Input
Amino acid sequence: MPYRISRRAYAETYGPTTGDRLRLADTELILEVEKDFTSYGDEVKFGGGKVIRDGMGQAQTSRAEGAVDTVIT
Output
């Protein structure tokens, strides 16, 4: 059986996901996540003591191939 957590707990642990809204820094701009390309269950956390290998959580796509301009983590 899959492990379930609340939407709030997910956002606090892994960041925003599809449908979530967030304020951009100290501006009046509100962003809404249209699509989350995360494979649920394979989320990556960055920071001290975390381990990540090449290709995990990061695409190796160039801008010309359609890489996104902005990533919010």
The two ends are 28 Å apart (CA to CA). The domain at 1-73 is CATH 2.30.40.10 (Urease, subunit C; domain 1). The first helix runs from residue 7 to 14. The helical segments are 7-14.
